[in-house]
Amino acid sequence: MNRRDALKTAIAAGAAMATAAGCDSATATTSGTPAAQPAGAGTASKAGAPTASASPFTALPPEVSNGPRDRPNVALTFHGQGEPALVDRLLSELETGGARATVLAVGSWLAAQPAMARRILDGGHELGNHTQHHVAIAQLSAAGAYREINECATVLRRLTGSAGVWFRPSQTRHATATIRAEARRAGYLTCLSYDVDSRDYTDPPPAVVVRDTLASLRNGSIVSMHCGHRTTIDALGPILDTLRTRGLRAVTMTQLVSG
Length: 259
Hints:
CATH architecture: Alpha-Beta Barrel
Helix content: 25-40%
CATH class: Alpha Beta
Strand content: 5-15%
């Protein structure tokens, strides 16, 4: 039995998903299902992602935890930092499997690895904001939160021409009212949460990442995953195989909410 088959077999054990999150320190339960998009929403820019001004996504709630449940799409979203060679391997694994993903980049990491911005976009993936320094943003003042968001947005614009549509707060699963307000001031109308936590940041065996990802995944799910982890790369093949078996497509966040 090869590694991929062994991992697929291992998920049969099944388990309820753990509730802890890799960047989660909050307990809020705010969520939202996107409504129909206005005309033109989700149209990709030349840089690979719509800008907040070009595609305001005004029909979305202040925070999104899942996409529409009536379409067979899911979004694999990755917290973006890590050794570039590992990130490249992860992206290649996604592309080989016919998947497209949304990478929420840490600004300081992307500034130090500028070639990764083009690598992500050239692979058909989407690039967004995960704060400049990956701090516990919920503990910051309003001014501090804005600075973290805006500095990362500045890096994204410099490298790609677009700040992207999507912002995910760091070290918290859900955005506070302050974070939402400061994200909006920086140009992000919607904060991005998730309903499936792969827990890959704990570096368990790949079969555990596969199990935790697939246990409650369904139409419209947004999955939290992380770049820069070998265990995540090893888990992706079986995850994508199972998505195909279930008739699900792995798409970018913009594709997820745009239909």
